[in-house]
Amino acid sequence: MSAERFCDTYPQVDIALYAELILVNAVVREASVTDHVNSVTIPKGTLVTISIVAFNFDETVWGPDADTFNPDRWTDHVSKANHLTFLQGPRGCIGRLFAETEMKILLVALIQRLRFDEVVRGKYIERHVAITTRPKNGMFLKISAI
Ligand code: HEM
Q1: Does ligand 1 have an atom closer than 6 angstroms to the CB of 42?
Q2: Does any domain span residue 20?
Q3: CB 61 within 8 A of CB 55
Q4: In a domain, 17, yes or no
Q5: Measured between alpha carbons, how far is 128 from 25 in angstroms, rounded to an integer?
Q6: For residue 71, what are the domain limits?
Q7: At a CB cut-off of 8 Å and minimum separation 6, what does 106 contact?
Q8: Is position 39 within any domain?
Q9: Between 20 and 30 A from 25 (CA), which of 53, 91, 105, 125?
């Protein structure tokens, strides 16, 4: 994959799905009025948790390979707008462009100089889900200069 393509796709995938970087797992909203979503009544004052992780891995949105590293899924603009990593809409993250640009610069600087290899190839990295997500038992990498 070219550096340009990597740069364009990888941060999205990383943030949204794999969270080696930072992922906010969920946000909470308080219903300001009583409302109905499908057949569920949500009384005024109810605290509603929106699970960003559940949405970002939802197979009905992403297909059966939702849990798979697949940078190609980010090549069209529809899918770029179709994840909740930074939320969406008027109360979405105002730092999104800054954060994405910063991560692209950092990633390019790293992959131009260093090579990253898994110590145990193909090892499943279990997620530790709290306010942010990180690898449960760490992630052992061999890092060498290019
Ligand atoms: C990977 C990095 C980041 C992620 C995943 C992220 C994610 C989010 C999410 C999910 C929200 C919505 C929270 C809610 O409404 O409950 C949010 C809001 C916000 N974020 Fe970020 N953010 C990131 C980086 C940043 C940076 C770098 C800044 C500032 C420079 C920033 C500033 C804000 C602000 C001010 C809000 C509140 C917006 C509002 O309520 O209108 N974020 N962010």
Answers
A1: no
A2: yes
A3: yes
A4: yes
A5: 11
A6: 3-113
A7: none
A8: yes
A9: 105
Domain tally for the chain?
1
55 lines ligand 1 (CB under 6 A): no
Dihedral of CA atoms 65, 16, 123, 128 in degrees, nearest 10, equals -120
Nearest to 111 by CA among 135, 146, 70, 139: 146
Instruction: Take residue 121 and report the two structure tokens written for it.
Output: 């190839």
23-66 per-position pLDDT tens digit = 677 888 999 999 999 999 999 999 998 888 788 888 888 888 88
d(CA 85, CA 56): 7
Please tell me the distance from the alpha carbon of residue 24 to that of residue 138, in angstroms, as a whole number: 18
Pick the residue whose CA is nearest to atom 16 on ligand 1.
27
**Rounded distance from Cα 91 to ligand 1 centre (Å):** 9
Task: Please state whether beta strands 40-42 and 47-51 pair in parallel, antiparallel, or not at all (unpaired).
Answer: unpaired
Q: Which position has the token pair 């997500």?
A: 133
H-helix segments, 24-128: 52-56, 59-62, 77-80, 96-113
Report which ligand 1 atom has the smallest distance to the Cα of 21.
1
Q: Global pTM?
A: 0.78
